[in-house]
TrEMBL record, chain A:
InterPro entries: DsrC-like_C (IPR042072), DsrC-like_dom_sf (IPR025526), DsrC-like_N (IPR043163), DsrC/TusE (IPR007453). One of its GO terms (molecular function) is transferase activity. This is Sulfurtransferase TusE. It holds the Pfam family DsrC. It comes from Prolixibacter bellariivorans.
Length: 103, 168
């Protein structure tokens, strides 16, 4: 475990940088994390992050396919928003655990 | 974890699928899709019976062998009797059960899986030799197939550091 400072708040994260407590998250924090990851957060990004958080709360495993069918963003769009790791990077920025699915 | 990070990460994978059983094609698709999801460049090459995995008429109806497959089990875990596998419709029924099981895990049908891979920047190719042998045409193949190429052309794409070729 490690601690990180985002938007004036100290949060506990895993070694990979995923939040240990999703409730610590807010949009300000997401913006700072995104900047750190080289992504400028737009409203579209936030829409995806909020969708992921909602899905996470239902307890169902997240997959790219599910996100693609959510109506929020298609798969191609998801790759464009979070290049190099559509599900991993978006989950990290959404303050939810590292995804565990293979698809 | 930190030890992994110190290594130079995998940059490119080339996956060759030469067999057309459900599990062979899916193994190739999962590996290629998994790669693009990790930001790894991925190229898929379908050859011989693997071409079924990108042939429009066949790709969503792939079968798993109920004959000559020692790992095949009954739903309860008992050995699958070979004689049962011979009966008409059994292989088809078993295969459709497997496809249903995969769909429940959010494993898409083959056509959709190919779309997912290309949406992530992965590329799909068909082997020229096998396409000629099976007398197929470009229009018989999935629209996600970028080109029909020779193995030599495929190897030309394998350049660069940290590239792996995977054969299923």
């Amino acid at each position: 475990m490690a601690e990180k400072n985002y938007a004036g708040k100290t949060v506990e994260v895993t070694e990979d940088g995923y939040f240990t407590n999703p409730a610590d998250w807010n949009e300000e924090i997401a913006k700072e994390m995104a900047t750190e990851a080289g992504i400028e957060l737009t409203d579209k990004h936030l829409e995806v992050l909020n969708y992921l958080r909602k899905q996470f709360e239902t307890g169902e495993a997240l997959t790219i396919r599910k996100v693609g069918k959510s109506g929020v963003v298609d798969i191609k769009g998801l790759y464009q928003l979070f290049p190099g790791g559509p599900l991993k990077i978006s989950s990290k920025l959404a303050g939810i655990p590292k995804p565990t699915s293979c698809v | 974890m930190s030890e992994h990070k110190a290594e130079t990460p995998l940059k490119k994978v080339l996956v060759i699928c030469a067999k057309g059983a459900l599990e062979d094609v899916y193994a190739a698709l999962v590996m290629a899709n998994g790669a693009v999801m990790e930001g790894i460049e991925a190229k898929l090459f379908f050859t011989f019976f693997g071409l079924d995995g990108i042939t429009k008429k066949r790709m969503n109806k792939l079968h798993t062998a109920t004959l000559g497959n020692p790992a095949m089990r009954m739903p309860g875990g008992m050995q699958f009797p070979s004689l049962l596998g011979v009966l008409p419709g059994v292989e088809s029924g078993v295969s459709s059960m497997m496809r249903k099981g995969m769909d429940d895990l959010d494993m898409p049908p083959v056509d959709e899986f190919l779309e997912m891979i290309t949406a992530g920047g992965g590329e799909v190719f068909a082997c020229k030799l096998a396409v000629d042998m099976f007398k197929l045409k470009k229009e018989d193949l999935s629209d996600e197939v970028k080109d029909i190429i020779t193995i030599g052309q495929f190897y030309e794409m394998a350049g660069g550091e940290n590239t792996q070729i995977i054969f299923t």
